[in-house]
Amino acid sequence: CLKAYSLPEAGVVDLTVVRVAPDRDLWLTRVQRNALNLRYAPSSLQADRDLVRIAVQRKPQALRFAADELRADSEFVALVVEQSWTALRYISSDLQGDRALVSSAL
Fold first, then answer.
1. In terms of Cα–Cα distance, which of 15, 77, 30 is closest to 49?
2. Which residues, other chains included, contact 76 with Cβ-Cβ below 8 Å and sequence gap of 6+?
3. In Å, what is the CA distance from 64 to each residue of 7, 8, 17, 54, 81?
4. Among 21, 40, 56, 106, which is most buried by a count of CB atoms within 10 Å?
5. In angstroms, rounded to a whole number, what is the distance separating the alpha carbons of residues 56 and 50?
6. What tens digit of pLDDT does each residue of 36-64 get?
7. CB 37, CB 31: distance < 8 Å
8. 23-32, 33-42, 95-104 — most confident range
């Protein structure tokens, strides 16, 4: 949701409001301690790009617990496999057939 507020001295300020799950900080701590804790996170947080990225940076195998839509997102997967080619086994089967993506990881 994007809101614009008018301030007399500064003109117009754009403010982006992002809704975050109330327990996101708790799960961030859990994933930082052990990336594989992502398996126990609520499905909404398994679809959280930043949380999953942090988990996968620590342990590429954590990608298997990410939401299907993230494992099928070519842009997200490209970033993940660039860091660790071992994550390839956890991406969607459609993307496993993407030669350019797979070769870029190797």
1. 77
2. 49, 52, 53, 70
3. 47, 51, 30, 14, 13
4. 56
5. 10
6. 999 999 999 999 999 999 999 999 999 99
7. yes
8. 33-42
